[in-house]
Amino acid sequence: MIETLDQVYHHDEMAKEQNRSPDERLKFHQEKSAPLMTELKAWLEARLEDKTVEPNSGLGKAIRYMLKHWAPLTLFLRFAGAPLDNNLCERSLKMVVLHRKNSLFYKTTLGAFVGDLFMTLIYTCREMGVNPFDYLTTLLRHHQELSKDPRRWLPWN
Fold this sequence. Notes:
Strand content: under 5%
Helix content: over 70%
Distance between the termini: 46 Å
């Protein structure tokens, strides 16, 4: 199973390296990855049907989950531009969850406000491709100019 998914991700990496358009990437995956995914689905179903995997085991639950969500998991074979996974969303949410957890320890409302402000700046920097540490250091070095014209010092500027 892991080797099959590794091949699918390899195909996606090849499509990116070749700068294929979303439509070309879709056709490429339909040609190269669809047969692999069809074999994988048959293999998963066989494991449950011939009872070589206990349905309530960790592997059995994972197989049932994959089969139950097969249509959304294989969206990249039907829609141009669909990603293979949702790792981008997961990474975005991870910062929010960590911040929420850490914010339990703020002693004052002002402390929470400052923490939220820095979280927003750091996240915005990452989204804009700016190094958050370098950005915040630059703000500190140029604090007088910053106070005169804050808009000029936004991460996208």
